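Hey, quick one: can you model this chain's 3D structure?
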Amino acid sequence: MDGTYELFRQFYGRRHFTQGEDQPLGAVVGVLHSVLEMIEKGATHLGVATDHVIESFRNDLWPGYKTGAGIEPALRAQFHPLEEALAAMGVAVWPMVELEADDALASAAHIAAADASVEKVCIWTPDKDLAQCVRGDRVVQVDRKGQKVRNAAGVREKFGVEPALIPDFLALVGDSADGYPGIRGIGAVTAARLLNEHGAIEDFPPSVLGEQREPGAAVQEPGDTADRRAAVPRRGRVAVARAHCCIRRVRRSPGRRSPAGALPQPAAVISRNDP
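Sure thing. Here's the predicted structure for all 275 residues.
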């Protein structure tokens, strides 16, 4: 579960019913109730990833990437209490610092899917980035707000591409939620057509993206400096954007549970049946 997303959802959802009066830990309580509901409905193993801080390595790749600026103090004050409450509840918590909650979710899903004893892996977040982790009917994405469960066919229906091409798709069309723009003149339909025709962005013929492909002629964005683009050889702004969308595997660190980007051992295996 994406704990940070759930915290935001609970915070603003509850405000609607309290005429704007924020309960000190109201959103935390809401997330805990959601976790209990998941267990009551059959989840046997549960892990919650959080953004211990909002900023990550992606801010070094793109200056306009999302930050913690503008987060309301009443909401920010519940970030760390949520992690503490979940841990006290017996739930595996992955508080991320250098990486993001998305990276932890993807890593846990990958590890769980490789375990033959696991019947199904559900990634509870509506974040488009996580659609790249869906695999057939075994690893699915659950959108609680939209009340949808997407398998690989569902991802293809929604985006027009296979799950593995989601990073390329988002790099082309952009993602306002994460703070980076798409390629001018390329919408969702065109992006899907190009990717289905050519495959990943690296395999596009040079003429497809033209000047927006090469770092020397990339479209200038505020703060899009040459030294930042130089970190991505031979590719311009679209490649930097794609790097944002690619989920990074988090290292496993036995016995460790700290805000340093490591998954506890074993990953995603806090069970309601465990003592």
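One thing worth noting: Residues 90 and 270 are 7 Å apart (CA to CA).
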